[in-house]
Amino acid sequence: MANLTLEDIAKLAGVSRSTVSRVINNHPNVSEIARERVRSVVSQTGFHPNLAARSLALQRSYILGLVIPRSVNTFFADPYFPRLTEGIAQACNNHGFTLSLFLFYTEEDERNLFPRLCRRGLVDGTIIQSTHAEDEMFDQLSKSEVPYVVAGRPMHVNNASYVDVDNVSGAYTAVRHLAMLGYKRIANIAAPMVTTTGIDRMEGYRKGLKESGLRFDPDLVVESDFTEDGGYYSTQRLLPCKPDAIFVDSDMMAVGALRALRDKGLNVPDDIGIVGYDDLPPARQASPMITTIRQPIRRLGVQLVETLLDIIENGPIPPRRIIFGTELIIRESCGMNRIVNKHNDRQKPITVPREEGRR
Question: I need a surface site. Which of 66, 130, 277, 336 has the fewest CB within 10 A?
């Protein structure tokens, strides 16, 4: 049906025009029965509200910005970002918003382009992928009136809302699992220590070693950049220190570690065990398949939008902090079957259940 109005939808659904408007704008003060009536009529008629008129009336753009300080090549090379963006885009569509993606190649791009994003009216709110400690992005945001939420705990920002996973617990679980399988020299290919991801996973790594009765050896830690090549070259640097297992802070780096070990004629898991982090498709496609810490990436994306819309509607105070749990996914690279068959009296490995999110 063409040229339907809110009044037409209201008549067909048997509700008032204001009820139709509230449903279309995702207002909470609508009964579930009325909401379903309106949605059913909208679906059957193919009705599309006049977004331009709605934006003008409410002084909103109905656009949310997603800022990822990565180049286009990096964005598409790492499956983490497309999966996160998929969840964000889905939630935007569900709430009648358009998603605008901002990728910054260099710090100069960020300095030149980011202030435009902070101007009131271009977007209704912004999702920021957490960046390094020295980034000036949050200073600019705090001086603007644009609502924002951060993907990942931000560094040195106390009043920001964010959505993250429990990186300390995830890394701890990975190390405890390897230790319970009998590994003694557990190395770590770590995320950069200028990020909270790197700092939190390092805390979990060291805690896992300590509670397993293993000594922390700084020679067994190499920082890298989340890329496959980074994992490859970091593994080459670690091998002279003779690790018997490696906890890798991302699956992409774990894939690189596998390649480096294969090039050196080493077998995984017979010679060295590996546990990654993320549970991305390359971990399942690798040979051997990579044991990993699963984080609910797509669900993180959905929650980022839900949190940002809450901030837009109700203000930034108090800050929202939502943390998801992680889950140990046991595959081939940790040597579970080989070692359990030899030591069948070993304790069952820890699993941290995935959570739906908590404040």
Answer: 336
